[in-house]
């Protein structure tokens, strides 16, 4: 170990220190450059998904919704212990969300859905909108009023209490949102059962007087349906032997047709779909659960879908409270519902 | 300094590239292409008329031309007359009319005026006319219309019934029915009614009739009437749920689409045996098939089909479809073309 190299050694030491200093600067500069690229890429990705993030923050993972009156309701919350493989129950709600209602929406469509991701089996039960039930907000009324009186909370709790089922999630969509999302997906292919005609179809989405009527006609057979045509198909009811029941069947048909579309939706599609939904969508599911549901929906074979509509004798026509309604036969309905859906705990 | 500026520019570019890459990965739902050519594997004789995006297109071999019809409304459901001219429906939001046009698209005559709004603003007084069909002797037209309405503006009832009228004389559709026409059918109310008439050489008429099962469903059967006032004979069962009949030139071979009340269909053929239908043979199973139509010779069948649940509706062809050994189904139009599946193709020998 000699120390006789002091001069040159000092020089070497200075060079080493200079070299180390330069190396440190290079590392710092390199890190800065890498970080700059990462931030830039991240910003590009965040900007791309911004509409979806906005919807995710605003409309998904809903844990509480507004409630008029003084009724005490438990908050809607997503089930914590659901895994991606556990069966779950989803209440699908659809409302006329045009300017007639000024935000006070009834639910023209209520479809209770059970999804089993393992067996790939789906059960859809349409709850007639005119079903005369005890509402969670107090008193009796048509079940479509539950959402009006207490939002999704009240709709869920009314269904849970009257049908004695447990509901894990809900998803609500307005008419304009349905039309937009179907158009964004390029429409759907469906088989119309019969000529669907209605001379009193509401002309409430065209921007004119929302109380006007229009004539609509959907021709029968296999065809491509735009969002507007699909809406006409699921919404028309006046010239129909089964009125709202037939409409419920057609709504289930369109959901089944939509399932074929979900096979082709990728993560990159989420922002444009979120933009098209606008404010016409709400769910208690998280954005992750919504996107996780899409491949499940796409993989369900047609033969594994059970469709239930509560026709007579499950319901009967009555005139009650000054209006036409459907009286439920709970003795028949509840055992039927229990076949497909878990009981409320 | 210059190097720093370049680096910053590259960083910004990488962010933009990440953003645009995601946009490229998006499932694009571009509008269907307009029909401009046909599949090179299929060259069919004569001229085939189809409807796409409100226009009528004529396919002759590999060439395609768009008929020069007046703009406005949706032109659909062409039918060929003996001289090569066409009957075509022009559909608007609240009504439709029947037109007689040349093979080039020049209007030779407007045969109905179903827009009543000029004289009465009541929307329910408008009428539909659809599914025109030319009688076997070429002198009369059969069609479905929502007239008569028993109580327009007072009732929700609006269903199709079937009528015929001479091609040479004027007829008009009004609240009480078709003036100058002959009524053939009385529909089962609130079902959509009777549609798609097919006049047969023996003077009978085959059609699709929708009926209320009384069990929460509406189904369709193929109905046969030997005359305007005769009773309808059901040729198929409600369980088969068959519609969209097309009869070959022999007047006996029937193509139809049967859904069995499901969300897919079978394209089937069967032979008329007097007033009943023989056993059906499935040509295409589990398809999104609609609107079959026969070649002038009666050997070959055209139909609309989406090859997959998300696919476009194209024109498909089966040679010798009525024979014991039908050929393989082939697509006539490109996969990018989306035709009006509710409008049967019209095949002219001209």
What does this structure look like?
The complex is a heterodimer of chains A (345) and B (350). By secondary structure, chain A is α+β, with helices and mostly antiparallel strands. Chain A folds into two domains: 12-59; 88-340, 3-Layer(aba) Sandwich (Aminopeptidase), CATH 3.40.630.190. Helix content of chain A is 42%, strand content 22%. Chain A is built from eight helices and 14 strands. A six-stranded mixed β-sheet of chain A has the order 11-6-1-2-3-12. In chain A, strand 4 (132-134) and strand 5 (140-142) form a beta hairpin. The longest helix of chain A is centred in the N-terminal third of the chain and has 54 residues, at 6-59. The radius of gyration of chain A is 28 Å and the shape is elongated. Chain B is built from one helix and 26 strands. Chain B has one helix spanning 2-25; strands spanning 47-52, 55-60, 63-66, 74-80, 86-91, 96-101, 107-110, 129-134, 140-145, 161-166, 172-174, 177-179, 182-183, 194-199, 205-212, 218-225, 233-234, 242-247, 253-258, 265-273, 276-277, 281-294, 301-306, 313-318, 330-331, 346-348. Chains A and B meet through helix 1, strand 7, strand 8, strand 9 and strand 10 of A and helix 1, strand 15, strand 22 and strand 23 of B.
């Amino acid at each position: 170990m000699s120390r006789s190299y002091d001069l040159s050694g000092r020089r070497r030491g200075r060079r080493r220190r200079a070299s180390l200093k330069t190396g440190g600067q290079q590392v710092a500069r390199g890190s800065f450059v890498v970080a700059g690229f990462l931030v830039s890429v991240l910003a590009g990705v965040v900007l791309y998904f911004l509409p979806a993030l906005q919807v995710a923050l605003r409309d998904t993972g809903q844990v509480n919704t507004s409630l008029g009156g003084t009724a005490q309701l438990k908050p809607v919350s997503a089930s914590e212990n659901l895994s991606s493989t556990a069966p779950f129950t989803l209440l699908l709600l659809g409302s006329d969300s045009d300017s007639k209602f000024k935000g006070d929406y009834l639910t023209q469509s209520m479809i209770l859905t059970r999804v089993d991701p393992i067996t790939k089996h789906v059960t859809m039960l349409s709850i007639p909108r005119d079903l005369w039930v005890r509402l969670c907000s107090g008193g009796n009324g048509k079940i479509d009023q539950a959402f009006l009186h207490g939002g999704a909370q009240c709709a869920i709790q009314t269904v849970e209490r009257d049908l004695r089922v447990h509901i894990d999630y809900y998803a609500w969509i307005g008419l304009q949102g349905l039309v937009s999302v179907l158009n964004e997906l390029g429409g759907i292919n469906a088989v119309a059962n019969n000529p669907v005609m209605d001379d009193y179809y509401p002309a409430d989405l065209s921007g004119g007087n929302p109380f006007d009527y229009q004539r609509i006609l959907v021709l029968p057979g296999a065809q491509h349906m735009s969002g507007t045509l699909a809406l006409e198909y699921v919404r028309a009811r006046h010239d129909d032997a089964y009125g709202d029941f037939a409409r419920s069947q057609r709504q289930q048909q369109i959901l089944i047709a939509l399932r074929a579309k979900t096979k082709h939706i990728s993560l990159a599609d989420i922002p444009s779909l979120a933009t098209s939904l606008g404010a016409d969508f709400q769910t208690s599911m998280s954005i992750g659960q919504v996107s996780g549901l899409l491949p499940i929906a796409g993989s369900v074979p047609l033969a594994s879908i059970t469709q239930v509509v509560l026709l007579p004798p499950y319901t009967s026509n009555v005139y009650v409270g000054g209006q036409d309604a459907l009286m439920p036969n709970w003795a028949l309905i509840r055992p039927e519902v229990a076949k497909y859906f878990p009981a409320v705990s | 300094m210059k190097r720093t500026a370049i680096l910053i520019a590259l960083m910004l570019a990488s962010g933009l590239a990440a953003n645009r890459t995601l946009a490229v990965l998006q499932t694009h739902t571009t509008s269907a292409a307009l029909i401009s050519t046909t599949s090179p594997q299929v060259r069919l004789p004569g001229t085939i008329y189809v409807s796409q995006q409100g226009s009528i297109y004529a396919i002759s071999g590999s060439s395609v031309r768009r008929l020069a019809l007046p703009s406005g409304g949706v032109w659909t459901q062409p039918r060929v007359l003996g001289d090569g001219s066409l009957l075509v429906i022009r559909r608007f939001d609240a009504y439709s009319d029947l037109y007689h046009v040349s093979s080039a698209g020049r209007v030779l005559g407007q045969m109905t005026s179903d827009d009543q709004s000029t004289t009465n603003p009541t929307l329910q007084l408008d009428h539909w006319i659809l599914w025109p069909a030319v009688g076997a002797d070429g002198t009369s037209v059969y069609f479905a219309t929502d007239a008569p309405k028993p109580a327009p503006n007072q009732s929700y009832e609006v269903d199709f019934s079937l009528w015929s009228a001479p091609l040479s004389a004027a007829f008009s559709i009004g609240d009480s029915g078709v003036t100058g026409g002959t009524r053939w059918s009385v529909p089962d109310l609130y079902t959509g009614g009777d549609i798609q008439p097919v006049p047969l050489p023996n003077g009978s008429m085959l059609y699709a009739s929708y009926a209320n099962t009384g069990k929460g469903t509406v189904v369709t059967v193929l109905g046969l009437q030997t005359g305007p006032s005769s009773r309808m004979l059901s040729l198929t069962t409600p369980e088969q749920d068959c519609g969209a009949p097309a009869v070959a030139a022999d007047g006996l071979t029937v193509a139809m689409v049967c859904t069995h009340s499901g969300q897919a269909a079978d394209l089937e053929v069967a032979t008329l045996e007097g007033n009943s239908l023989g056993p059906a043979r499935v040509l295409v199973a589990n398809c999104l098939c609609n609107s079959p139509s026969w070649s002038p010779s009666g050997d070959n069948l055209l139909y609309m089909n989406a090859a997959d649940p998300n696919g476009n509706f194209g024109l498909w062809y089966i040679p010798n479809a009525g024979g014991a050994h039908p050929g393989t189904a082939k697509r006539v139009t490109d996969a990018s073309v989306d035709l009006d599946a509710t409008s049967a193709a019209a095949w002219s020998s001209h």
